Amino acid sequence: MEFDYNSTRKRLILAEYGRNVQNMVAYICTLPTKEERNRHAQVVIDLMGFLNPHLRDVSDFKHKLWDHLHIISDFQIDVDSPYPKPTPGAIHAKPETLNYPQHRIKYKHYGYIIELMMEKAKRIEDPERKKQMMQAMANFMKMAYVTWNKDSVTDDHIIQDLREMSNGELVLDESVNLTKAEFKTPPPGNRTKSSGNTNQQNNGGGQKNRQKKVQNNGKKKNNTKRY
Which domain covers residue 47, as residue numbers? Predict the structure, then answer.
């Protein structure tokens, strides 16, 4: 007696519909007349919609069910579908290869966007607007520098980087005051050192109190009168 294992059966094309639906579709392909195939296909379509009710939330879900019917039959079923028959090339089309950016960033901690902003700032003709744009970029550069370098930075350093990256076309006055950028203080749960010092201080204070009590008890004993 031979056992029927899943490993020996034909591969499920769309596993969410199960093997019985796939067997039904294979049976429809063997029917001699198109009238019979159309009648049986409509029954299978209704069953597929019942087995996957979440498809009802998809717009034009009937179209999706008919596409799945053709896919399950490996595009071999010959029925009168109310929708255009899908092609294997459209279903199994490979996505286009994504091109990775090849920009050579001079200062990576500032990013590539700041270089694009500089190119746009160079084309601004209004002096006041151009100055505001340069100061906004300098404020962003200072924030990015502190974020990635974990260190403080002077305004003169940021102004110099702005001048160098723009090839001397964007120059801020050295007297300008940039936005203050600093790190956030850690949450109370991460202050382990301070809590440890507090515990040591508390333990030290308790030890001193105990020493005073011992001394006071000793003085009381010495001051008691003997009769």
Answer: 11-91
